[in-house]
Amino acid sequence: MRYPSTTRRALLRLASAAALTSSPWLSVACEDPGEDNSPAQDTGTSGAGESSSTGDGGPRSFFDDDEVTTILAWLGPLPDAPRPDPTNAWADDPAAALLGQRLFFDPRYSANGEVSCVTCHEPADGFGDSRANLSTGIAITGRSSPGLLNGAFGSATEDGPVWQFWDGRADSQWAQALAVPESAASMASTRSKVALHLYDEYRDEYESVFGAMPELRDGAGLPLVDPTYKPGMPEWDALPQESRDAVEGVYANFGKAVAAYERLLVSRNSRFDQLWNDLAAGAPDSPSLTDEEKAGLRVFIGEGRCLGCHNGPNFTDGEFHNIAIPQSGENVPEMDQGRAAGVMKLVADKFNCAGAYSDHPEKESCPVNFVVPEGAEVGAFKTPSLRSVGQSPPYMHTGNFATLEDVVRHYDLGGAAYGSFEGAKDELLRPLSLGAQQIADLTAFLRALDGEPLPVELTEAP
Ligand code: HEC
Ligand code: HEC
After folding, report:
1. Cα gap 17→8, rounded to integer Å
2. Please, where are the H alpha helices in 228-270?
3. Which ligand places an atom closest to the C-alpha of 443?
4. What is the pTM of this model?
5. So what's the pLDDT on residue 158?
6. I want to staple 29 with a disulfide (CB 3.0 to 4.6 A). Which of 72, 234, 247, 442 is the partner?
7. Among the listed residues 260, 315, 391, the one whose alpha carbon sits nearest the alpha carbon of residue 78
8. Pocket lining: 110 vs ligand 1, CB cutoff 6 Å
9. Element (H, E) at 320
């Protein structure tokens, strides 16, 4: 197959992914003897646009053998379950998930009592926010709200963290959730208010999941910690240690319950998965995609170079890249350091994998211990999953692409000439010179990644 002008870096990236032979999505292709798993190899046997037959007089297949090998090896269905989260002992506890779902839909712990997670993560939008480029809670956030479907899988190919946020400043879903209430733009609330809310409104459910809750009110019913207090305030610092611990213990469990719910937001069996299953079963072709979508898949794995970063069962390498997204658009801040700033916040986060509230049995092995802040690239952002991507416009961390076609045109140009930190742009971003038909094909293919709808009981307040 043709994999044009693959850079050394992409080769390295693909080669390291090839080492993941234990991945279930890779094993199918590996079982097939005589097949070469490396899509980076330019065998020059056939060009894009050609089809091969499966033997004398057999049905013509759309993809040639190398393309089939690439599709089977580098993409594939999601594993049966998100990988375990050792930092959250309640990650797969159904009662914790139910409590988490209540909290996800509950606006009462925000500063004005009106903002819930759903305000910016609308179930009908793939749990993203299609209303504006940047979401609004108490104020306008500086980044676009991503869809949350399949977020618990991360790259779904290897052990390690499931980085959260565009800049990966949280290393688990529960640590991510704890950043929301105190964010000035999102909820402008406090950990003290969240803990007191759980004490007042959810005490029974909380205790049946996490065990006894500390007293958060005195004999007269007054809060032991004023609900306006949070770290950074002298009043918070002046509290006795045990009061701060009481609040933060409940607060950490708030995050763990929300994360247990988020792990259920799984959408699989897209039409692409059906095609993959057909090819994996040895069928020469599949009726699950139209010819236009199949042509788009061909661009995705070939000339478009999309596979260099969007690979594996969740269509993401889970890493950070600068793809020259301009810091432009309404209310978009002029500067965004991305991963370079995110990694510093991650290391400083007391709720990270290595922190006191993490349930990880071997905290010394936490990935946060091994991140190299100096190595983080400015303007790099997390490669998002492309599963169900059609459901959660607008796109990119700035939300300044309204449609998938806008996204494809950005890649076709090789990234914006005027993106911030231009010098740090990823090598894979080069002008592609796709024709109008290929742009339409690739856009159509992205829509074939829509998964099945979630059960309705997960998309409403319980
Ligand atoms: C005011 C809008 C707003 C509210 C309210 C909000 N979010 Fe978000 N959410 C965002 C934005 C914007 C981002 C991306 C921010 C960033 O990366 O810096 C985000 C990111 C996330 C992510 C990371 C997803 C990923 O793939 O990295 C998760 C998970 C998430 N939010 C869950 C929640 C939960 C749980 C709540 C409620 C406790 C919540 N959000 C409330 C706007 C919001
Ligand atoms: C160098 C790695 C890399 C390559 C190559 C790449 N992407 Fe991306 N992709 C990313 C990153 C990183 C982001 C998020 C960037 C940001 O917001 O700053 C992204 C974002 C996207 C989004 C928006 C998703 C969302 O939820 O906002 C789509 C769609 C997308 N890519 C599709 C593609 C397609 C199609 C190709 C091939 C033409 C491609 N990507 C090639 C890394 C890459």
Report:
1. 14
2. 234-237, 241-262
3. 2
4. 0.90
5. 74
6. 72
7. 315
8. no
9. strand 320-321
